[in-house]
Amino acid sequence: MVLQFNSDGSMKTPKSVSEKVDNTNKAKKVEVVSEKQSTTNPVVEIDCVSCKHGKSYFWTMQTRSGDESETKFYKCLKCNHTWRVYK
Question: What is this structure's pTM?
Answer without folding.
Answer: 0.52
